[in-house]
Write a structure and sequence with these properties.
The chain is built from 8 helices and 3 strands, in the order H-H-H-H-E-H-H-E-E-H-H. With 167 residues, it is mostly helical. The longest helix is centred in the C-terminal third of the chain and has 25 residues. The radius of gyration is 21 Å and the shape is globular.
Length: 167
């Protein structure tokens, strides 16, 4: 039996759409999905089984001093209606509360509740543990480069900050 020394050609379909499987967006998206999945698992382990990714999406944009709904929606790249629905869910869970904005009684500011602050502390612990695990998996030098490169790349995106906390 002889073995052919001719290299196998890739099918035209495989090479024509290979870019769909191997691009920065796919790689970043897959890494983010794995990281967020780990954070959610750690939240379950810490007694916060009700936590879902959308809840994290809201809380990652919420300033500790409170944030207007319109600002939350803008930061999260969501409509005001979609953000309001997410806030409704987090209110039911006891994580946040809406209060009238003292500067404009028509507007509402979302604040963490005391239970929400406890949840936030647990989320911080889960996030730090997931980051430690990531560093262990890829190594300290690679993780340092990864964090620095992603910080540089995402520098123009501000998802939280005191500059526009209330409005």
């Amino acid at each position: 039996m002889s073995v052919s020394k001719t290299p196998r050609k890739s099918s035209p379909q495989r090479t024509a759409d290979a870019w769909r499987r191997h691009n920065a967006g796919r790689i970043l998206g897959n890494a983010l999905a794995q990281f967020e999945s780990r954070v959610l698992a750690l939240m379950v382990q810490s007694g916060h089984a009700q936590t879902r990714l959308p809840h994290i999406h809201l809380t990652r944009h919420l300033d500790l001093g409170g944030t207007r709904i319109t600002v939350l929606a803008r930061r999260a790249a969501m409509t005001n209606a979609a953000m309001t629905e997410l806030i409704d869910q987090c209110e039911v869970l006891g994580l946040v509360v809406r209060e009238a904005d003292p500067a404009d009684r028509r507007a509402r500011i979302v604040h963490f509740t005391p239970a929400g602050r406890l949840w936030l502390a647990a989320f911080g612990r889960a996030l730090r543990k997931a980051e430690r695990e990531l560093r262990e998996q890829v190594g300290e030098p690679a993780s340092r480069v990864l964090f620095e490169a992603l910080a540089l790349y995402g520098n123009g995106v501000d998802s939280i900050g005191a500059g526009d906390a209330a409005g």
